[in-house]
Amino acid sequence: AQSVTQLDSHVSVSEGTPVLLRCNYSSSYSPSLFWYVQHPNKGLQLLLKYTSAATLVKGINGFEAEFKKSETSFHLTKPSAHMSDAAEYFCVVSGDDTGGFKTIFGAGTRLFVKA
Amino acid sequence: DAMVIQNPRYQVTQFGKPVTLSCSQTLNHNVMYWYQQKSSQAPKLLFHYYDKDFNNEADTPDNFQSRRPNTSFCFLDIRSPGLGDAAMYLCATSSFSNEQFFGPGTRLTVL
After folding, report:
1. Nearest to residue B79, comparing CAs of B20, B9, B14?
2. How many CB atoms lie within 10 A of CB B97?
3. Contact (Cβ atoms closer than 8 angstroms) between residue B37 and residue B91
4. How does pLDDT run across A34-81, given as a tens digit for each residue?
5. 41-60 of A, contacting B, C-beta below 8 A
6. Can you tell me the distance from the alpha carbon of B70 to that of A63, in angstroms, rounded to the nearest whole number?
C-alpha cells in the first residue's frame, strides 16, 4: 500500500524568504511523485515531477524538490517566496507495482506569504 | 491548445435527482480519472479508466458510476445525489508517465 503525508497543514513565510514544504511517502516500490499547486478557485497545476530520473527535480516558478529514498521524502523548496506563491500545495504519489495508475494526494499545505 | 474540458462548470441538482458530469480531452491520453474534492480538502480519487478498463477505488460509493464511450470522453454519473455529495469534481488525464492534466472542475450543489 502507498501513502503520502504532508507534515505541515499551514506554512507562513515572509516575502523574499525561503519556502520549505515537507512531504513523506510510503511505498513498496518506486512510485512517481508530484507536487501540484492550487490557487483559490483555480484548477490544479503541476509544479514538478519525479519519475526515477534525477533526484533533484526543478519545476516551474523557481520551485524544486529533492527525492531522498533513504528518508522517503520529497520536500518542496523555493529560495525566495513571492506573494503570488500563496496557495494550497499538494504532494501526490501515483502508480503501483502492477504499473497501474492509482493516485493518492497528500492532505495539502496552505502557504501564506506575508509582505 | 490540448486540454481537458469539463462541462458544466457549475451544476445544481436536487436531492436524489440523477446528475451527469462530462469530461473531454484533446490530449489523446489513455487514462482518465475522476476525483472528488470537498471544501478545504485534498482531491480524492473515485475511479479511473485505462483505455476501456475501469478501476474503481474500494471506498467509492456505489452511488457513483462512470462511463467512457471513447478515448476523448468520460462521464461521471451520480445516481441519487445526497447533500454530502456536494463538492468539486475534477477530471484528469494522463499517459504512461502518470503526470496528470486536470480540468477546471465542476462544482456540484445539491439542494
Report:
1. B20
2. 12
3. no
4. 999 999 878 899 999 998 778 899 999 999 999 998 899 999 999 999
5. 42-46, 49, 51
6. 37
Instruction: Tell me the nearest-neighbour CA distance from A114 into chain B, angstroms.
Output: 21
pLDDT range class, residue A28, cuts 50, 70, 90: confident
Q: How far is CA B44 from the centre of its chain?
A: 10
Residue the block writes with cell 451544476 = B11
Q: Which of A87, A12, A107, A82 is nearest to A43 (CA)?
A: A87
Q: Give exposure, A54-76, as e/b (b: 16+ Cβ within 10 Å).
A: eeebebeeebbbebeeeeebbbb
Q: What DSSP state is assigned to residue B9?
A: S
Distance CA B87, CA B60 (A): 14
Taking the C-alpha atoms of residue A19 and residue A112, their distance in angstroms, rounded to an integer, is 10
Q: Tell me how far apart the alpha carbons of residues B45 and B42 are, in angstroms, rounded to a whole number.
A: 10
Q: What are phi and psi of A37, to 5 degrees?
A: -120, 145
A-chain residues near B48 (CB < 8 A): 101-103
Judged by CB atoms closer than 8 Å, whether chains meet at B99 and A107 is answered as no
Of the residues B9, B98, B107, the best mutation for testing chain A's interface (the one with the most A CB atoms within 10 Å of its CB) is: B98
Grid coordinates of A25: 511517502
